[in-house]
Design goal:
- The protein is mainly beta.
- The protein has one domain.
- The chain is 11% helix and 51% strand.
- The protein has two helices and seven strands.
- The strands form two sheets. The protein has a five-stranded antiparallel beta sheet with strand order 1-2-5-4-3. The protein has a two-stranded antiparallel sheet with strand order 6-7.
- A hairpin with a 4-residue loop joins β1 and β2.
- The protein is globular, with a radius of gyration of 12 Å.
């Protein structure tokens, strides 16, 4: 897993695993999920991340695609 923040674009990208992106789904306002051809998430992008999220406000991220919804604690994402 890899987490990248681009301050010029003010975008946060969390890569869950490597793979070929087949589609990008809108998961919420300014939140997009890259999925492979099986519909499994590869990564999560949050636009305007610096404006939307304060460090003390982030406790978990929920990826919700179709029937799948699983909270991912930030400490697990960073590890």
């Amino acid at each position: 897993m890899q987490i990248n923040f681009d301050p010029q674009a003010d975008a946060l990208y969390i890569q869950f695993r490597e793979g070929e992106v087949d589609d990008t789904l809108e998961a919420g306002k300014y939140v997009y999920v890259d999925v492979d051809k099986e519909g499994m998430p590869l990564g999560l992008e949050i636009l305007f991340a610096g404006r939307l999220l304060a460090e003390e406000d982030i406790t978990s991220v929920t990826v919700n695609i179709g029937r799948m919804a699983q909270p991912l604690p930030i400490d697990e994402l960073a590890g």
